[in-house]
TrEMBL record:
Highest taxon above the source species: Bacteria
Alphabetical list of Gene3D superfamilies matching this protein: NAD(P)-binding Rossmann-like Domain
Phylogenetic classification of the source organism: Bacteria, Bacillati, Actinomycetota, Actinomycetes, Streptosporangiales
Name this protein carries in UniProt: SDR family oxidoreductase
Amino acid sequence: MLLENKVIVISGVGPGLGRGLALRCAGAGADVVLASRTESRLAEVAAEVAELGRRALRVPTDVNDEASCLRLVEAALESYGRVDGLVNNAFAIPPLTDLSTVDLDAVRAGFETNVLAALRLTRLLTPALAERGGSVVMINSAVLRHSRRTFGAYKMAKASLLALAQSLATELGPRGVRVNSVAPGYIWADNLKWYFDFLAKERGVTAQQVYDETAATTDLRKLPEPDEIADAAVFLLSPLARAVTGQCLDVNCGEWHH
């Protein structure tokens, strides 16, 4: 019960990592505030949280809209009276093309969701977090660790998110707020499963073969699942990490070393 009776706000709640974050936080004893643009996803995850015996507040939210984020913060404080943690998980895939030809407006749009939205929500929740000696976790990516072609805009956004987290750690530390990052590699959830099925059909092999070939590039010979990544976030939100701030914890089964 690392998060017993804490209140955690989670953005970008969906069927994959967002769901895993909500359920692992609830399993660790927290009540959660679920934010996403899709109401149906919030309802599904909230029902699962309730089955674990914890409360879940559903707040449809557009993280790119200041007023929408302000309503999220107000709803959380009205319902629970406090906020102990924030997980910035909202994400938009940047254009996956060479930087030499990429549409700059598309790059800007990626920054809005992947970087500025995290700053917006963190700023709005800072007073509440400071009252509780709270914690912020940014969900980053293993794209930080490589420079593969067509991933330039993606890496630009996530590198900026890392810089944001580190700078906020310095700014908010004197107020008792910790800010850290989790950088997943592959996430073995629905989107990746669909992609592996697609690759398997193109190659005329099984999806298991595609999985095995990919997993062979990691030290643990497996791909991380949402719950395993969420557990790292739970640790950073918990008192066990009370002296940890400004750090980035890679969760990639040893695909990359940092």
